[in-house]
User: What shape does this take?
Amino acid sequence: MKKQRKIVLAYSGGLDTSIILKWLQENYDAEVIAYTADVGQEMDRKKITKNAKKLGVKKIIIQDLKNIFVKDYVYPLIRGHALYEGVYLLGTSIARPLIAKDQIRIAKKFKAYAVSHGSTGKGNDQVRFELGYHYFGPKIKIIAPWRIWKLKSRTDLINYAKKHGIPIPKDKRGAPPFSVDDNLFHTSTEGKVLENPKNSAPEFIFQRTTSPEKAPNKPSFITINFKNGDPIGLNGKKLSPAKVLDKLNQLAGRNGIGRVDLVENRFIGIKSRGVYETPGGTLLIVAHRAIESVTLDKDTMHKKDEIMSRYAELVYNGYWYSKERFELQKIVDLKRNKVNGSVKLKLYKGNITIQSRQTLSNAYSIKKVSFEENKTFNKLNVERFINFHKKKLR
Assistant: This one.
């Protein structure tokens, strides 16, 4: 008897991947394994399992990757101060490489001949997933339903779901949902009314941040502790990477911090509008720059700033596992062992204010910058310095 082939599907339990799960069964002579990576998204494990079983799946795998996600993906991104087009903290982009890596691990474990994902034919995620698949499993076939099936629109998907008895979720207003991605780092919302950039984002779409107007009237304070460039705890208490980010998300979200409304340039060549919420990540990048300001020398800091845009673009485009990103990460992390100490932040109605920076580093010298007369800084050298640079103007 011929052994049945296997396909591992990146399965969220939502509408799109539930439809894909059914479609794969209809169009391929293969067993579909439903694989869900838990990177901190809002999810109901029992519901995911129930839905997959209802659709005929025998093997359902839910993998907890939250600490790996924060430690090995989010934290390197924060150390690089990576902001795509100046504002986007790359919340969706940074999760895809990890999911792709672990999905290929599962495919190899169960000797699957193919992997599949639910990314649309117009989006960036298809690139991010597939570059990750190729890096870890170049011989494994990739099935991208959105590029090959006859379902061309959201309406087609809903009709297909109705035909096959697949539950159709509703948004808070009772309509079919926006396109939403979330993980421990962020939430993104796209589609529907947001597609026209003249429209304001309706308040009800925001899931993890209070509007600044409705945030508490009293400020909140938080101290982030750093070691070797990474957060290791809050207010002096050591916490796991996932716990650090979770607590910062809650605190920043309550204070209306972390919202971005962006019309971005997608890798595949079109513009799209997304609304992003990255509350904890916003605190981390502000605090990280603050601790580096008192621990790193000017040349190291400025070199990092020079490469930040390219680093962010590589991550956005799906090149997390590229030689270039690895090389840039070496520059980013060259002196991370010096980045130790703590930063205290004040949070108030969407604003972040740095209250203090504390470190044992001697990179910052109070004696040298003091306005009081001292012998540690020779002012006569300044004139020679200026005269040297005057020559460069000619």
Q: What stands out?
A: The chain has a mean pLDDT of 93. The chain has two domains: 5-66+94-172, 187-358. Residues 8 and 106 are 8 Å apart (CA to CA). The first strand starts at residue 5 and ends at 10.
